[in-house]
Amino acid sequence: MEKFIYSCPVKTYFGKGIMKDALSSEIPSVGENVLLAYGGGSVKKSGIYTEVRNILEAAGKKITELSGITANPTYEKVREGRDLCRSEKIDFILAVGGGSVADCCKVIAAWANLDGDIWEYECVKRQTPSAFIEMGVILTAFGTGSEQNNSGVITNQQAGEKRSLKGAYPAFAVLDINCSASLPADLLMAGAFDTLSHCMETYFSLPEEIVVSDEMNEIIMCNIIKNMREIKKNPENDDARSELAWDSAIAMNGVLKAGKKPAFQAHQIDHQLGAYTDCTHGKGLAVIQPSYYMHTYKGAVGKFARFARKVWGIEDKDLNEDEAAVRGIGALKLFVKEMGLPATFSALGGVSEDVIDKVVQTTYIMDTSCEKLTKETIKKILEACNL
C-alpha cells in the first residue's frame, strides 16, 4: 500500500426523511446571510425548495438565491456565485441539488475568499485555495459522491476545457432519498453508473497488487450492481435507492482510495466530452469505460481477471487470465445495455469526428492508470465508441 493520510471531515446525515432534522440541527449555528443555491425547477416542483426556505426563514436567516446551476456547471455561473457572496456578504452556502450544484458551490466557496482568477490560480499556477465560506449540501440526486470531497468539476466554455478544481469541503451533507423521489429513472441509473465508475477507476489504479481497499471496493461494486438491477425492476425500491446513495458516498469519501494512487482517466475523457457536447456524465461514462478498458487491460491483466471473477462471477476454470479479463469487460458492457444506458455515441445522439479530435487534444493524461494513455490510444477508444 502507498502512504496516506485519511480524513473525511464531512458530517453526513443519512436516512429517509432526515432532511428536516438535519437542517434543524445545523442551520441555527451558521451565519446570518445564507446563499441558497440550486439548479432548475425540480426542487420547487418537489416541494424541497419551500421546505428548505421555510426552515431558513424560521431560523432568522437572510436568504440570497443562486438558481440555474446546470448539469455541467460553468465557470461563469461560479463567477456569478462569487459575486453574490461578496456583494451580499454571504456567511454560509446551502447547495440543494445533485453533484453539479455541489461542485459549483464548493468552488464558489473558495473563490469568494480569493483574489484574482481561480482558474488561473489552480490550473496555471497549480496552487490550492485555503480559505472558504462554510457550506452544506442537500442531495437530490446520488451518484457523484460530490458531497464527500472538496473537488468541483467546472466547464470553462471560453477555454473549451472541463477541469476539476479544489474548493471547500461541505461541513455537512444530507442524504435523504425522499429528496430524490422525483428523479427520472434514466438519471437515477446514470448516477448509479457514475458510482460504479468511481469504484472501477480507483480499483484499476496503482498499485496493481491487491490491497485491502481493493477488497472493500469489490464488495461495493457488487452491491452497486445488485441494487441497480433491483432499481431496474422497481424504481421505487427505497431500500435499493438508499444503498446506492450510501455506495455513492463510500466511493468518494476516500476510504476506497486509501493506499492507492487513484487514476480517474475515463473521467478525464468524459469531462472533455461533456465540455463539447453537454452529455449527462454517467451516460458518457457508460459508453466510454468498456472501450477504455478494452484498450488498456493488458497493463493489468491479472487484476482485470480478478475483476471478472470477484465482481461478475465469471468462474470458468478453462479461461486463462487474458480470456477472463476480456470476459469481465464484456460483462460490463452487457450490464450497461441491461440497465438501459447508452452503449455507443449514437445512443447519446452522436459525436462528430471534430468533437472526437477536440476531446483527444484536450484530455488530461494521468500516469497512475494501469496503462498510461497516449493521444493515439484515446482516439482509438473514442472511435470504438462510435461503432
Descriptive overview:
- With 387 residues, this protein is an alpha/beta fold.
- It has 2 domains: 170 residues, 3-Layer(aba) Sandwich (Rossmann fold); 201 residues, Up-down Bundle (Dehydroquinate synthase-like, alpha domain), CATH 1.20.1090.10.
- It is 49% helix and 11% strand.
- Strands 1-8-5-4-2-3 form a 6-stranded parallel beta sheet, sandwiched between helices.
- Helix 10 crosses helix 11, helix 11 packs antiparallel against helix 13 and helix 14 packs antiparallel against helix 15.
- The relative contact order is 0.11.
Task: Give a brief description.
The protein is an alpha/beta fold and 387 residues long. Helices cover 49% and strands 11% of the residues.
